[in-house]
Each structure stands twice: as structure tokens, then as C-alpha cells.
Amino acid sequence: DSTGLGIKLVETGGKSYFENVTFKNINNEQGSLMLYGAPAKLEFCSWVGAAGIACNIFRSNVEFTSAVFHEYGTAVKASFANVSVQAVITKCGNGVMSEFAVVEVNDSRIEVTRIGVQAEKNANVIVEESTISATQIGVESGSGSEITVRNSTIKSAELGLKCVDGGIGFSGGKLKLNDCSMQGVKVDYNLD
User: Fold this and answer.
1) What is the pLDDT of residues 51-92, one digit of tens each?
2) Residues 6 or more apart from 73 whose CB is under 8 A from it?
3) For the chain, N or C: smaller number of CB within 10 Å?
């Protein structure tokens, strides 16, 4: 596709499969790949070089295996979705963002991002067997969200962990850590 608009799948009624697909220089605010009510499995796919969202997922079950995200504004954004991510994410503004979603980040490497993994609102996120490095914020849990980090490392970050207060009438974020390490982190945690 030379239009630069990317791919948008809406209410597909079945699972879509992408294998060895490269999305390059597609700068679309809705995402170079936008999935709305469209379950998908993506294997060995890569996203390279754009300011927008690489993969925007809404009301979909999506699985990434051996994915690569490089130089994007946001690698994965999940809303009202169930997502599994196994990826290498480098030089992106944000790694994995979620709201009202269930997200698993397994066996992944997230480097040089503003925020490695973020649960904005009412998300449940598990980060396992992963390394998050060279970020401003390693992991951030927001209003009503919970992030569990297991057998993972956060290193060379400005701020390792952040929990955000939900404000009046909302619960704050929660973090659960199990067998994790932080190396070269300027500030271990911040509770807003």
C-alpha cells in the first residue's frame, strides 16, 4: 500500500492472520493497523518509522508473536481488548498502552521509550520474563488499573515504577512485583 493509510479491519466476524508483514512509514492517527472488533494473530510482523500509533486495538482479541516495533509514536494501544504481546520495541514514544483492557507482555524487550508499559484506566496488565530499559518511566499504573511484573528487569530508567492516584471517586493504580530487579534506575518508584 503506497497511500500511507495502513489497514483498518472492522467487525470481521472471524480471526485475521498476518505473517511476515512489514508496516513502514505509515503515519496514521488511528494506527497503521487498526483492529475494531477484529480478532487477529500476528507473527513475525514489524512496524518501522512513523509518529502515530503502530497497532491500535479496540474490542478485539489479538496475539503478537515475535513482533518488532521501531521508531513509532506508540507501539501498541489496547482499549476494551484482550492482547498478548511478545515483541522487541525500540525508540518508540510509548511501548504498550492500555485502558479497559487485559494485556500480557511476555518475553519482550522494550528499550528507549518514554513509558515502557502503561495501564491508563481500569486495565489489568501482566509483564513477565521481559526487560524494560532506557525509559523515562518503566511501568505506570493508572486509575483503577493493576500491573503485575514477574521475573522481569527494569534498568536505566529515570523512574522505575509509577502509581497514579485516580482522583476523587476513583481508585488509584496498583503494582504487584514478584522476582523483579531494577538496575541503574534514578528513582525506584513514585506514588502520585
Assistant:
1) 889 999 999 999 999 999 999 999 999 999 999 999 999 999
2) 50, 51, 52, 53, 92, 93, 94
3) N
Q: Residue 166 has what pLDDT?
A: 64
The pLDDT-based confidence of 5 (bands split at 50, 70, 90) is confident
Longest CA–CA span in the chain (Å) reads 47
Distance, CA of 97 to CA of 79 (rounded, Å): 9
The C-alpha atoms of residue 189 and residue 97 are separated, in whole angstroms, by 19
Q: How many CA atoms lie within 13 A of 7 on its CB side?
A: 17
Cβ(146)–Cβ(118) below 8 Å: no
Q: Compute the CA torsion angle 33, 36, 40, 42 (nearest 10 deg).
A: 20
Please give the C-alpha separations between residue 190 and each of 95, 177, 178, in angstroms, as whole numbers.
19, 15, 18
